[in-house]
Amino acid sequence: MSVAQTPDDTGAASSSALHDTRTVLDGAEIARALTRVAHEIVERAKGADNLVLLGIPTRGVFLARRVAERIRDIEGRDIPVGSLDVTMYRDDLRRAPARALLPTDIPTSGIDDKVVVLVDDVLYSGRTIRAALDAMNDIGRPRAVQLAVLVDRGHRELPIRADYVGKNIPTSHSEKVHVLVTEHDGQDAVLISGGTTTESSATQDTTTEAHA
Amino acid sequence: MKRHLLSAADLDRDDALLVLDTAAELASLTDRAVKKLPTLRGRTVVNLFFEDSTRTRISFEAAAKRLSADVINFSAKGSSVSKGESLKDTALTLEAMGADAVVIRHGSSGAPHRLAHSGWIGGSVVNAGDGTHEHPTQALLDAFTMRRHLAGGSGDLEGRRVTIVGDVLHSRVARSNVLLLATLGAEVTLVAPPTLLPVGVETWPCATSYDLDSNLSKADAVMMLRVQRERMNAAFFPSAREYSRRYGLDARRMAQLPDHAIVMHPGPMNRGMEIAAEVADAPRSVIVEQVSNGVSVRMAVLYLLLGGAQLGAPGDSLDPAVEA
After folding, report:
1. Quick one: B149 and B131 in the same domain?
2. Reduced to 3 states, what is the DSSP secondary structure of residue B275?
3. A178 with A150: CB under 8 angstroms?
4. Chain A residues near any Cβ of chain B (below 8 Å)
5. Full set of structural domains in chain A with CATH
6. Alpha-carbon gap, residue B189 to B89, rounded angstroms
7. A58 preceded by cis ω (within 30°)?
8. DSSP of A98-165, one letter per residue?
9. CA distances from A23 to A7, A170, A172, A179 (A)
10. Cα–Cα dist B132/A142, whole Å
């Protein structure tokens, strides 16, 4: 989910809140971050053997495809990319009317004994990733599961951390992080909106993270 | 989505497409080793069947179990209903057991509506066929099957021609299909002998005809209805043989269909009566696929009715705040 706890976010919604919105990553910075993440994935996996990228819809899927393109540029080979919808596994389903499902598309080669890299746009509470791990458990048994996110905004509520992070962005709970991708929103950007006295809350949250 | 699914008319175009899209995602579950989702864990679904059924009851049971709901099967035979228990007392018993949804099939038209609006139970009611009235999940699975074969598996059925043939008078499947297919933009023609068309059919959003042969060459889908002898207490046609000759789908008639057209039947079939065995087993027959699609569609309906927060209806005993 691009905006944690605001499932119906779209580019249009975020542009309506532009007056209190600031850009934390522009298109070029996102591109560099994804290139670095791709290199880190290849380095950790010592090549691209047995790698599978699974994006979490909606925007995680586009990010997964871009990382896969970069890995192809580095290693000269295609790696399987899919999508994994976690809606049916969420722990907050009964707090809102039933949601529409998003596409799940597991590469035909499967995930058994592969190194699966989950790709999402924002890591926040960690609950989406918990749901993704459960969803994957019903599909197969990977050799290892890793997590790549474009933005880690802190405030974890579960013992989950990312293996590859595009950018750590300290935030307060009252702020919203919007990830826009060209394929879905017409432009590449990471925006933050909302929140009061941004400076102090950011500092405060950095301190909180140090404790965590 | 409304709180209950009693009629195909309860679904507007967006609701219907939401059910079909959800079912399309859930259909991929059938290819998986673990055919189960945790979504309805802790919810109870009661299958309340006052009439005999094979595929609908099994289909609802499989759908609820694949979503991890607890399933209680109730059939009138062998229950206190045969001792004279009323629908109300049966419903109160189910409510006391904490049913979150009741899937009901009943011989009397309107029984699901009565159950949903009486205040006897707090959960959702799903109509699994009531008398000669409606069978909305059958219409959904038929639309799902047509969409897969005729519309590339997405969107609506705008402009597709569907011919529904046979015992429309006693068919809840036909009524629900006409309503849902009209919502999805399809053009429906009912073909039946005059005695087997219901009074008031001219107000339905469809065309009618007495002649099958003239309605085959342009059809994208032909749906054959079962001749429901158990509901017939009068002579609606001279003989089974004559019915079969005029309204049965045999190989000669199947050859008149366009190449892409599919043959459907809600089951159970009377082979040799409304449909010839060679047609039922032909490659363009999707009758078996209808059954497997039924599970996905019923999973989608149960998920959309029960998966999220339940909205408290007026006079309802469920408190949404407590639910959350």
Report:
1. no
2. strand
3. no
4. 85, 88-89, 93-104, 134, 138-140
5. 26-171 (3.40.50.2020)
6. 41
7. yes
8. PPPP---B--TT-STTSEEEEEEEEESSSHHHHHHHHHHHTT---SEEEEEEEEE----SSS---SEE
9. 20, 14, 16, 10
10. 51
Q: Are B201 and B190 in contact (CB under 8 A)?
A: yes
Spatial CA neighbour of B81 closest among B94, B72, B90, B93: B90
Lowest mean pLDDT among A10-14, B39-43, B179-183: A10-14
Contact B323 A99 (CB under 8 A): no
Q: Given an 8 Å threshold on Cβ–Cβ distance, is A93 in contact with B308? A: yes
CATH at B319 = 3.40.50.1370
Give the model's pLDDT for residue B108.
94
Distances (CA, A) of B258 to A12, A184, A195, B177: 45, 39, 62, 21
Share of chain B above pLDDT 90, in %: 80
C-alpha–C-alpha distance, residues B93 and B80, integer Å: 11
The beta-strand segments (E) located in chain B are 44-49, 70-75, 101-106, 124-130, 161-165, 187-191, 207-209, 221-224, 262-264
**Cβ neighbours of residue A97 under 8 Å, at least 6 residues apart?**
B1, B308, B309, B311
Indicate the residue of A95, A101, A140 with minimum beta-carbon distance to B25. Answer: A101
Between CA A44 and CA A54 the distance in angstroms is: 17
Two structure tokens written together for A99: 């949601």
Token pair in block for residue A94: 């009964």
pTM check: above 0.90: no
Q: What is the mean pLDDT of residues A45-61?
A: 94
Which residues have C-beta within 8 Å of that of residue A143, sequence separation ≥ 6?
Answer: A50, A113, A114, A115
> How many Cβ pairs within 8 Å bridge chains A and B?
54
Instruction: Please give the residue range of the domain that contains residue B243.
Output: 136-290
Using one digit for the tens of pLDDT, what is the confidence trace for B283-308? 999 999 999 999 999 999 999 999 98
pLDDT of residue B311: 56
Over residues A173-196, the mean pLDDT reads 92
pLDDT tens digits for range A69-97: 999 999 999 999 999 999 999 999 989 88
DSSP three-state, residue B129: strand
Output the pLDDT for position B308: 87
Please confirm whether the linkage preceding A170 is cis (ω < 30° from 0).
no
Is B2 within a domain?
A: no
Q: How many helices, marked H, and strands, marked E, lie in chain B?
A: 11, 9
Q: Contacts of residue B39 in chain A, CB cutoff 8 Å? A: 88-89, 93
Q: Are residues B299 and B216 in the same domain?
A: no
Q: Residues B21, B111: one domain?
A: yes
Mean pLDDT of chain A, nearest integer: 86
